[in-house]
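Minimal example, chain plus Q0Q.
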Amino acid sequence: MPLTHEEFAGLTHLGSGKVRELFAVGDDAVLLVASDRISAFDVVLPTEIPDKGAVLTGLSLWWFDQLADLVPSHVVSSNVDEYPAELTPYTEQLRGRSMLCRRLNMVQIECVARGYLTGSGLKDYQRTGAVSGHPLPTGLVDGSKLPAPIYTPSTKAPIGEHDENISRADAAGRIGTELAAELERLTLQIFGRASVLAAERGILLADTKFEFGHDTQGTLRLADEVLTPDSSRFWPEDTWRPGASQPSFDKQYIRDYLTSTGWDRTAPGPELPADVVEATRVRYVEAYERLTGISFKDYLSTV
Ligand SMILES: C[C@H](c1ccccc1)n1cc(-c2ncnc(N)c2C#N)cn1
């Protein structure tokens, strides 16, 4: 049965993402729980991918550590055996796939960095020649590497709707010039470091989305999940071919299967065959191990 917030009926549910749940823990903490659900073509599928939630949580935790010298994170703990007593009934459901975090006053802007042109950025470029007010060279195609990474803030759309890319001036108008400039600086700095680290492992970081918030002392912290295949586009470097849709590091098997079935994307997603589920699970574990250099089994033994 897919993990849903009903499984945590006793907790105070704050919100759901496509594949994640957010709960309040006391007055000053939140619990982020990653399910094994997966979405493709913006549709949440009925079949779970075992270990996906743990892989994405482990990746976020690893990236938070890699980035700690650049920006503090919202994470308090990921050790379920040290969680507050109210979470004890859910320990095994939370193990490896959850983060206890400071409750932040979230900045109402999605901070997106792009090193390559695709997705909504490509659509904006094809329509206007620019993305979030950044004029770009002519002749770029799907998957083109940009002359330099760009910061393209967007609004926070409700679930099921698409974020809207906005200009940096619009972002400043919404959250103030100083904070907007700090978010741009941090977003590009983090993206630059992550891009180098991923490229050293043969993975292109095409784009990613960060969320930030302020803690009760007013400290700006990196929040949400970070640099996971759900918040970012990761492409295998050896199959990068500008001019077409790039193979997704983690979801290509699912995309190919769904396309092969002739599935109508306005219809509910079909169940996935066992071989596609297992191949996708293996890809997630491979992504974790390739990026972190840590065996997934070792990660599971530490949580
Ligand atoms: C978008 C994301 C979300 C994830 C999962 C399910 C539904 C929403 N979300 C996270 C917060 C949030 N709020 C207060 N303090 C925090 N530390 C965080 C975080 N991260 C608000 N929204």
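The two ends are 23 Å apart (CA to CA). The longest helix spans residues 177-199.
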